[in-house]
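Weekly structure sync, notes
Attendees: PL, DS, HV (note-taker this week)

Item 1: Protein-L-isoaspartate O-methyltransferase
DS walked through the input record. Source organism listed as Winogradskyella marincola. Sequence as pasted into the shared doc:
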Amino acid sequence: MKDTFKHKGMRQQLVDTLIKKGIKDKAVLNAIGKIPRHLFMDSGFIDHAYVDKAFPIAADQTISQPYTVAFQSELLQIKPGDKVLEIGTGSGYQCAVLIDLGAKVYSIERQQELFKKTSKFLPKIGYRAKKLIFGDGYKGLPKEAPFKSIIVTAGAPFVPMPLLSQLEIGGRLVIPVGDDVQTMTLFIRKGPKEFEKHEFGEFRFVPMLEDKN
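Item 1 (cont.): predicted structure, written out as tokens:
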């Protein structure tokens, strides 16, 4: 578990790539430049860690493409202290980015294998979520609601209503919606029943599954 000058150099090249692709948020770029993404992957794949591509991890899941992580994080507009719900902990990389941005992160993972691995791993490298939960992301986390932001890191065939209802007024939900290809969608809660919707082009995610525990 080493982070070397070589890795730091590779991260800086990745940050330069993201800037060229249009990511502007300095805090997000700093987080990507700081977090050792190679530690979130099997050691045999170090060379792939700082390429702007998604990569397979355990339980048939993927570690998202850095551009996607940066894009979703930028849409959330996180301020330090924001209470954020993440659906799909996965490798924990997106969670680490949110923590680095100063968010208080509650994260739900439905794959037991990944949940166990990531729960141990994140604190070991210094990233502490408020809570990591093994459960069904479609239900959100009503006990802890409302949230300033909710981020979904898997392709959802539809927008789960519980997630919209768990946003505070002014809060933001960022979710990729669709079956084979997803449209990155942002919902901003304007009132008890009013939501503003924005769409941001096509992305590809592993599917968001429910009640599969």
